[in-house]
Batch of 4 targets.
Target 1
Amino acid sequence: MFRLNKLTDYAVVVMTYIASTPEPSLHTARELAGGTQLPLTTVGKLLRGLLDHRLVTSHRGMKGGYALARPAREISLAEIISAFEGPIGFTECNTTPGCCDLEPSCTVRYNSGVIGKALQHALQSIRLSDLTKPMHESATRGSGTVSITFGSGENNEHDQHHSKPYQPRI
């Protein structure tokens, strides 16, 4: 099972909260903690990690705070995950060669690499701006294809123009 640790999950929550602001604005750690219902100490730890990976910027002073380092449409979910988890892969041997004694004779190592690349591509395709709107999943029975549509799912001109299905090739 592909699973994120809690800190990574919370980083996605904080980044989505910041990106949900209608216009770029500064957010204090206290505001982010209150808005996301996360402990202030956890938010502080998240902000340090996000600053270290240049996903947010900080501004000091009376009216200081934190803001996205780039527009939300330019930040991928993969970047946020990598900041807290390290390289994205399906198995550890695909991101850290030499970590397993079975590596030379493993019969699924190559396929794990293919799955890891598909996972990386899928997470790279999802933008922070996509997370601020509802996503909709549809699957074609028997095809092995799952599509994710970004947007409200309603049939209106805005969503038709801005929604984009993602179909992983697995």
Target 2
Amino acid sequence: MQDKKTICKVVIICGPKVLVLKRSRWVIYHPHRWDVPGGATDPGESLDNAAARECLEEAGYEVEPTKLRLVDSQSKMRDGKPAERFCFAYFVDEEFEPKLSFEHSEFAWLSLNELDTIDLPNFYKDCARSCLANVKLL
């Protein structure tokens, strides 16, 4: 039987903008590609706790797990094994400068239009669109 990998990602939103992180050249999966904070769950870890832990590890930003809102999930294959991706939304009042781990080389706060100009997986773009549909854009 194949083990299922569970990935939890967080779209961090401030007003009409989303925080994105650029993966460094040192990572195995998708170097130089834009991403949102997140990663695999640890054994026995809840989805919201995994998402919060990954935000702290990758962006140096502490999120409150109870304030994460599940936006969408998706089943896919990764390395020939089934994987489940969960995307959460987290709203912040002010943009902040993340403390990046070795996994990322840069960050940006981007509007929806700007998200379409970068190499960010469509699943996360769609999650951001869904979250921002109810946010008043300036």
Target 3
Amino acid sequence: MNIFKATADFERWLAKRLPIVRQDIALKHQHMADAAFPFFRATFYRWLQLWPEVCPELAKAPPVLAVGDLHIENFGTWRDEEGRLIWGVNDLDEAWPAVYTLDLARLATSAYLAISSEHLSLTRREAAEAIEEGYRDALAAGGKAFVLAEHHQWLRVLALGKLRDPLCASGQKCSSARRTPPSPRAKRASSLRPPCPSPAAPTN
């Protein structure tokens, strides 16, 4: 099955479950053709078909309640019921039981794609180490959300700065604050092996 048939099958399946706006689907296809990252974001169905073949050992890992369609743009901030600024995964509409490596491999792949297109100022190794370290730390902490007023002050400053960026008369941002997070710690660097990369988009 190639990408065109996979996409057509998915959209037929989706149309049976919710109303489809054809103009929006056409626009989505245009964005998918623009670059690798939007293609990756829009084709989770294709990832599910191919990743067990490309990464068979990772696909045998223990199952958990997975986010599913996880990538770096599925993280963001919101206010909890106490008004505190929280950071974490903010897109859970495809959460489903799956092997835990599904989320880790897909998140790392999205970071690699963002790095290759110069949208993320890290090396692949730094990204892989940060993902592994964050996953281990979150497990140790019991999966608690990041309350930015209490911890992770650098992330709070980044999030609030993005919300406050002023616009000049031209409509462009007047300042360009540095958006690069601090470098992750280098522990386990010699033994860390980055997750299996994403399969290339089929062309036939």
Target 4
Amino acid sequence: MIPIAKKEDNGNCGYSRDLFESRKLKEEALAGHESTRKAILLKARHIFIRHLLNTGSATADDIRNKFEVPEGVNPNFLGSVPTPFTRGLIINRNGYVESSRPAAHARVVSVWRLINSRKAEAWLLDNPLPESEGE
């Protein structure tokens, strides 16, 4: 991982990485999560999309309140949860709020809004949990 170093007046809000490089690194991390955390991502995505179907919106806090991250797993992988839903035009970002979880120290998180419940329900049917994980 490339460290972000603060610099003066380089035209990029004072950081040494440009936006395209940052986006590339994010995409690489998301792809890594997809390959190494497939089973737990599926479970977290079920929690996420079911929450959206019930309430219409969701944040990372909503997932964390219903999903226990396995011991030894960095919870950063949860940032990959919304990805297929944003690309599938099932959800969109509807602003930002401060996290209510004390461990998150009021970090800003996205608020996701359900925009296509039919596609969300189809995703659940097309991506079932293993029998042992079913609800």
